[in-house]
Write a structure and sequence with these properties.
With 306 residues, this protein is of the alpha+beta class. The protein is 28% helix and 32% strand. A hairpin with a 4-residue loop joins strand 6 and strand 7. The longest helix is centred in the middle third of the chain and has 14 residues. It is globular and about 55 Å long. It starts with a strand and ends with a strand.
C-alpha cells in the first residue's frame, strides 16, 4: 500500500462511464455511483464521450488538466481506454465493474458489486490510500504503444473477435456466436515465433495468451498463475488442438486446469515478442495491433484506489 496526498478538494475525480457496458444492465446506477464517489471528498466530473476515441481523448485531457483520480465505470473495454491516460503517471485509478466480464477489476481486488466498488474507491481517496500494480505495454511494428491490464489474446480467441468485429450481420451476441462457428470450422494451428527475454521458440499453436492478470473473456483463467505485482508476464500456449480437443479444453480454462494438459505450455518473461501471419492481437478484449507485437511488463505502472 502507498500513502498519497490527495489534498486539494477543488481537483475533481474524473469518471469515464460506458452506459452500454454489460448490455446496459447497470445504466441507471451512474447517479448513485457518482454520489458514492463524492464521499471521497472531491467533486466528481463525468466525462462526455460518444466513441472510444473520444473517451480516450477525454481521459487524457482530464489527467492533463489535473484530475485527482480517474475512475472507469464499465467493463474491461472501458478500463482499457482509461488506462491509456493514467498508465505511467501519478494519477490513481479505480474501476467500478459494470460490464459483462470485469476480469481486470476482479483480478486486481475491486468488489464485484458496483456500489461496493465505488465505496472502496471513495474510502481510498479519503485516506490517501493506493496500491501499485503492474501493467503490460504493447509495441506494434510501426512503434505504436498501448497499455493493457489483463490479458493479450493472440490465438483463436483473437481471430474470433476479429471476425465478429468485421461482421455487419447479425447484431448483438449472435454475431459473436456465428463468428465462433465459422472459425471453429476453419480451425488450424498457426505457426508462431515467440521470443521470451531473447530466447526464440518456433511452434505451432491454436491458443496464445500473454497475461498480466489471470482472467479474460468473463472469468476464464487463461493464465492462472499470473500475478500483476511480480514484474513478469505469463505466457500460455495451446498447441496443435483439433476442434474436439479445443472444446474440451475450453471447459478447463475457467478453473485454470487447462495448463495441465500435455499440449499446453506455460512460460514467464519480462519481454515477449509474438509473431504470426494474419492475426490481430486483442488486449482486454480490445484490438491492439496486427502481429508482430512486443509486450513488456511494466512494474508498478498504475496505482489502484482500493
Amino acid at each position: 500500500m502507498t500513502a498519497v496526498d490527495f489534498s486539494g478538494t477543488g481537483r475533481p475525480v474524473a469518471v469515464l462511464a460506458n452506459p452500454s457496458a454489460g448490455r446496459g444492465r447497470h445504466r441507471g446506477l451512474l447517479p448513485t455511483v457518482v454520489h458514492r464517489l463524492a464521499a471521497g471528498g472531491h467533486p466528481v466530473r463525468v466525462l462526455a464521450a460518444g466513441t472510444p476515441a473520444e473517451a480516450q481523448a477525454a481521459c487524457r485531457a482530464a489527467v492533463a488538466d489535473g484530475a485527482v483520480a480517474l475512475v472507469a465505470v464499465g467493463g474491461d473495454g472501458t478500463a482499457h481506454l482509461a488506462l491509456q491516460a493514467v498508465a505511467g503517471t501519478a494519477v490513481p485509478f479505480g474501476v467500478v465493474p459494470a460490464g459483462t466480464g470485469n476480469d481486470f477489476a476482479g483480478d486486481t481486488g475491486f468488489p464485484a458489486d458496483p456500489l461496493a466498488a465505488a465505496d472502496v474507491i471513495a474510502a481510498a481517496l479519503r485516506h490517501g490510500r493506493s496500491h501499485p500494480i503492474d501493467l503490460a505495454r504493447t509495441t506494434a511494428a510501426d512503434g505504436t504503444q498501448r497499455w493493457y491490464g489483463a490479458v493479450l489474446a493472440a490465438g483463436i480467441d483473437a481471430i474470433i473477435n476479429e471476425r465478429a468485429n468485421r461482421m455487419r450481420w447479425p447484431r448483438g451476441p449472435r454475431r459473436y456466436d456465428l463468428a465462433i462457428l465459422v472459425e471453429l470450422a476453419r480451425l488450424r494451428p498457426r505457426r508462431y515465433t515467440l521470443r521470451l527475454d531473447g530466447v526464440t521458440h518456433e511452434l505451432d499453436a491454436v491458443l496464445v495468451a500473454i497475461g498480466n492478470c489471470a482472467r479474460y473473456g468473463g472469468g476464464m483463467r487463461i493464465c492462472p498463475a499470473a500475478d500483476p505485482t511480480d514484474g513478469l508476464l505469463d505466457v500460455v500456449v495451446g498447441g496443435r488442438f483439433n476442434r474436439r480437443t479445443l472444446l474440451r479444453i475450453k471447459r478447463r480454462i475457467y478453473p485454470g486446469t487447462h495448463v495441465d494438459h500435455p499440449l499446453v505450455r506455460s512460460f514467464r518473461a519480462r519481454t515477449v515478442e509474438v509473431a504470426a501471419a494474419g492475426i490481430t492481437g486483442y488486449a482486454d478484449g480490445e484490438p491492439v495491433a496486427e502481429l508482430p507485437v512486443t509486450v513488456t511488463a511494466a512494474p508498478a505502472a498504475v496505482r489502484l484506489l482500493r
